[in-house]
Write a structure and sequence with these properties.
Strand content: under 5%
Radius of gyration: 19 Å
Oligomer: single chain
Structural class: mainly alpha
Order of helices and strands: EHHE
Shape: elongated
Length: 89
């Protein structure tokens, strides 16, 4: 069996969700780190809260765009060289 084509939009949607989950995890780590930096004021506590919202969005958008480009490029290259051979059971 040979993988000749990847649906760029469907692949990008799946990766965007996975990256959003990863971004949420990274945002939580940054949020905890911001708690340790909090010295009673400043922007550190605000950054910690914002990281939980901003990171998943940035990761999802970045993952979506990069996967859309990569899957489209794969389709062009697979058309020229024949795709990837898969052994499924």
């Amino acid at each position: 069996m040979v993988l000749n084509r990847i649906g760029p939009l469907s692949a990008a949607k799946v990766v965007a969700v996975l990256y959003a989950i990863f971004g949420l995890i990274m945002g939580a780590f940054f949020s905890v780190a911001a708690l340790f930096r909090a010295d009673g004021g400043g922007i550190a506590p605000l950054w910690g809260v914002a990281a939980v919202v901003v990171f998943p969005v940035l990761y999802a958008v970045g993952g979506f765009i990069m996967t859309l480009i990569t899957a489209s490029l794969y389709n062009v290259v697979a058309g020229a060289v024949g795709g990837i051979e898969l052994d499924l059971r």
